[in-house]
Amino acid sequence: METLHTVTEQHAHTTAHGHDGGHHHTETFISKYIFSLDHKTIGKQFLITGMIWAVIGGLFSVLFRIQLGWPDETFPFLERMFGAWYTDGKLNPEAYYSLITMHGTIMVFFVLTASLSGTFANVLIPLQIGARDMASPLMNALSYWFFVISGIIMFASIFLPTGAASAGWTIYPPLSALPQTSPGSGDGMSLWLLAMVLFVVSTLLGGLNYVSTILNMRTKGMSLFKMPLTVWALFFTAIIGILSFPVLVSGVVLLIFDRTLGTSFYLSHIVIGGVPQPYAGGSPILFQHLFWFLGHPEVYIVILPAMGMVSEILAVHARKPIFGYKAMIFSILGITILGFIVWAHHMFMAGINPFLGSVFTFFTLLIAIPSAVKVFNWITTIWKGNLHITPPFIFAVGFVSMFISGGLTGIWLGNSTIDIQLHDTYFVVAHFHIVMGIAAFFGMFAGIYHWFPRMFGRMMNTNLAYIHFAITFVGSYLIFWPMHFQGLAGVPRRYYTNNNFEIFAVFNGMNKVISIAAIIVFFAQFLFLVNFFWSIFKGKKSTQNPWNANTLEWTSPVEGIHGNWHGDIPEVHRWAYDYSRPGNESDFIPQNVPLTDKEKTEADH
Amino acid sequence: MAEVLEIKEHHTAHQLPTPDNGEGGEKSPMNISYGKTMMWYFLLSDAFTFSAFLIAYACLRLGHKWWPNPNDVFNAMPFMGHHKIPMGFVSIMTFILIMSSVFVVRAVQEGHRMNKNGVMYWMFWGILGGAAFLGCQAWEWQHLLAEGMRPFYNVFYEGKDGLTTLWNIHEQGKPMFSPGPVAFGALFFGITGFHGFHVFTGVCLNIWGFFATANGTFEKRGHYEMIEKLGLYWHFVDLVWVFVFLAFYLM
Amino acid sequence: MSDHQLTEEEYKAQVAGVWKVTVILSIVTVVEVAAALILGPHLPKWIMNPFYAIASIAKAFFIIGEFMHLKYEKRVFMLSLGLPLFFLLWAIIAFGVEGNYLHKLLYLIK
Ligand code: HEM
Ligand SMILES: [Cu+2]
Hints:
Chain B is mainly α.
């Protein structure tokens, strides 16, 4: 068949730009910056949208931290700013629950899933594998716009008179299934569910595109085992999303039926105001299973892109080949597989079959193996390296620190017996914020500082970046380290106030310290935002390859052209980690440099 | 999808690479075009959606002491009045869907031969099969609804000796609480409804494919890959039915 | 997409293959329904259900292999689609255990 004579829009770019001088699209502001089909622009759109969300999510955490730090004070100025959420200068309990729910939802899904993967998969996949764009630029743009629509709906829910959803980011029924149980379980919950379904559409459009781009669009010589680890990580992230998000959709659809049609998938033996309800035969635990079948893989969707970027950044800035390239890939694969079979470790205390709990404990503890492989490889990579202490590098090191601290507490929690004491306490909050929240943010910052020159053609200010790092790093530990002790003492999470428990009065001072640190860290992020936006317009112009890195994106023109390369796409001859190769005069050899004769003979042996 | 925006003018001047293969770069280890790769992995993803539903069904059903016997629930047939024909109607539905799938395979095969009329001919029958299936499903639903079944209310309860018995709401009146396990109706309407929604989407897509073929879109493009992708989706719908059939009518 | 023009024989063989699978699918379905009607009322569920499940999985193989043409694709591709299904297998086991446990819980409260 005549496949040779077929052209998709993909190659239309090639012809329009590479060869066909007389045929140019006229680009308006709107087609270039708003409804763009160019992967680099879509990546930037994901990034900036994510930043807006992160500020909103962070602001919410400041508000509820103020409540937790000073449960007896009043804050009239906050009431003036946030009106209905406050009465007599105090945060309303309902508003508190909405705020923690929205904080979790925004941070986990909108910032660390959509924006993190969306930004770096878009910017890096085509550039690093040597493609002109994604396999389907249109689907790519749709993925972004579904994310926007989902976000608008979620944002709108905050302004409902009954408030946003308030059942926690895990939306367990019956709170989420019965509108009469709390104000946020009404319209707020409905919009939450709608927004999440659209969010999944966005994730699928993106993920399918990333996978097929990586499989089908690699440049000549870019065999799978020559791909940078970033691409590998994004590849598996996309696969996890494709396989786990649909299960969330199923869970959510059944929940919607419970809410609207009166079915009882998740409900049984419900009595409201003394009146028995007709719901029978359902199980809230079923929802938890469906939710965590997504929920646990989800945490790896969040962390894997950060892991990939950190691997790349550590090698570049330590000027050393990554240690254990294949081990890194197979540990990602291992994490992907194990990530799908451990979900019920979130439910040890929910009333699952205790025997099943011990099987899940076993699988859960296995995850420590690939995680440890990665950690040791990172440390070995920078060991005795020629360290260039740049902003991306310190953030990458910060990532490793956070991942170790938080990963170790995961092993505690993974034991069902220890979890009896720790479940639903601040210990869990400490665990997942350090290992997922802060670590993924550090990975994201490292990625932004590292690839900013490729995205915007300019450099970010280094001194501001150092200050940003110092405050964020110290501040994050100050916030979350003490929470371990609170959790060990049994302080429950998601409580509006602990005033009623006299034994927890000892933590009053600690809570104030945590809240102050949280506020400082929140405001420190504006250093980053100022640096970011200032540098877009006023930053020092970047050279072609500011970090002397090997990967292909640094061969594409700094100004970022449609189609990524003038003329032919470079051909790849070697892996991405030829740093400080003995006998070579420069300390890096880009992937598109052909093998020397000596290397060829070596390769033959 | 990408192909829609195809541009034809350029390809005579330059030897352009195939769309499934970057710019003459590395081949996909799967050796499949990106469009079909996407469709397949989307279907894998959708398989997880359906599996989640069916696994939830298994979980709830195992949680119940007693469950209605499908032979006693699904035994009506249009135009047969009160004759009970267990499994009769659903067997017909299953057969219709299989045939519809076969017709679409034939359309795909004709596409390989660039036989426009062949594609249209078989696509037409495929669409008709899909529509007929939807019609049957509508009939079955309305029949159950008329018997008093609801997603939140189940009239099939455990009678003498555990036999499935119909609570006749018209004669016996409607009790406050559902006579039989509520989950039965909820799962049945929920899952067959979700499947029916897929069938409906598939029929719409196939109709679009039919007219695009008629307009010569694929002929101009030089290949009928789009029909192949529609076919994949359509067979998937058939595949899901195999398991819905298993879960609700056989087990 | 196949890259070469089909010969008339190949085409005929393919068409014949499809009709053959159609017949197989129909027969399996008829056998399933007949078993459900004739044997179903007499044999216990733990015999019948595995039988139905195996027959359905066989049907699935034919649909995927022949209609969806997967039989003729590369092995890695088949594996990339088939291996993830093991996650579902574990889900079936885990959810099944939970279902049995739910059985105890649901009837605990009268
Ligand atoms: C060695 C690896 C890890 C183990 C053994 C582990 C184990 C656990 C366990 C058992 C829980 C449930 C605690 C409870 O609710 O009582 C938990 C919670 C959590 N973990 Fe991990 N974890 C590990 C790594 C990670 C990583 C890498 C991430 C994210 C990137 C993560 C994110 C979370 C989150 C978000 C929660 C809490 C969710 C919630 O209840 O709101 N964990 N972890
Ligand atoms: Cu987990």
